[in-house]
């Protein structure tokens, strides 16, 4: 249920929800693991000023 709420808020542009959704997708918490989609949401959050410390992997070509 949380993933659905995170996705709704993320689509509305909430950076915190984008990070939370990305975490769930990257780790398979409450949904199927999808690192490509996780990277997309992490990049969206970073574009709004969220920290990308420890997230260098989201910029690799295989996650674009």
Automatic annotation (TrEMBL):
Transmembrane segments: none annotated. SMART domains: SEL1. It comes from the Eukaryota. Gene3D superfamilies: Tetratricopeptide repeat domain (1.25.40.10). One of its GO terms (cellular component) is cell division site. GO terms for biological process: negative regulation of G2/M transition of mitotic cell cycle. Pfam families: Sel1. PANTHER family: ACTIVATOR OF C KINASE PROTEIN 1-RELATED (PTHR43628), CHITIN SYNTHASE REGULATORY FACTOR 2-RELATED (PTHR43628:SF1). This is HCP-like protein. It comes from Neolentinus lepideus HHB14362 ss-1.
């Amino acid at each position: 249920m949380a993933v659905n709420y995170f996705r709704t808020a993320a689509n509305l542009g909430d950076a915190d929800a984008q990070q939370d959704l990305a975490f769930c997708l990257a780790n398979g918490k409450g949904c199927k693991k999808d690192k490509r989609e996780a990277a997309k949401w992490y990049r969206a959050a970073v574009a709004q000023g969220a920290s990308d410390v420890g997230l260098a992997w989201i910029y690799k070509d295989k996650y674009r």
